[in-house]
């Protein structure tokens, strides 16, 4: 799809590096939007993805300006829905501008209409700047976020005794946690 400033197209396997670089460097990027998560969902649930990338048409030819990962979910006896992204509460479109975001959303809607897929669901933790007011917006998912104190003992003390006991059980059983990088992996 062409817009005045960006060209939107489906991704190919050659786009994975640029896609992941964009997600990792975008302030709203999540691990769910990385190509590896999308491939894992495809493999684990035998689903098909369609991912769109918006690229610059003028200066910096080909520079990624936005992405939209979608998974085609099928319910029995229906045409299903395009979801960004299933099995998580965050995902959706990443874009450098509200115009690119709107172009990606419009492209997803046009693709769904062409394929006769009746629903497009975008799960995002932020509101869309370019959202068409004629689109239905509902939030059937719940996301719970809790601010964490600096002191882990303060958090533990805020839990009810039964939950505290469940948290401490792995420690009593000898479970240990180490944080680190590749040096901790048995290679």
UniProtKB/TrEMBL annotation:
This is Uncharacterized protein. It comes from Desulfotignum balticum.
């Amino acid at each position: 799809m062409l817009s005045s400033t960006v060209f939107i197209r489906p991704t190919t396997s050659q786009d994975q590096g640029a896609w992941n670089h964009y997600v990792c460097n975008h302030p709203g990027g999540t691990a769910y939007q990385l190509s590896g998560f999308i491939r894992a969902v495809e493999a684990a649930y035998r689903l098909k993805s369609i991912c769109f990338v918006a690229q610059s048409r003028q200066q910096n030819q080909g520079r990624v300006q936005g992405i939209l990962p979608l998974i085609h979910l099928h319910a029995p006896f229906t045409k299903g829905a395009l979801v960004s992204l299933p099995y998580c509460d965050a995902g959706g479109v990443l874009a450098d501008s509200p115009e690119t975001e709107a172009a990606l959303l419009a492209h997803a809607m046009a693709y769904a209409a062409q394929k006769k897929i009746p629903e497009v669901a975008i799960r995002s933790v932020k509101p869309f700047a370019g959202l068409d007011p004629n689109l239905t917006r509902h939030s059937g998912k719940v996301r719970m976020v809790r601010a964490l104190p600096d002191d882990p003992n303060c958090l533990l003390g805020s839990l009810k005794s039964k939950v505290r006991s469940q948290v401490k059980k792995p420690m009593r059983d000898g479970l240990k946690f180490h944080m680190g990088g590749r040096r901790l992996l048995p290679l």
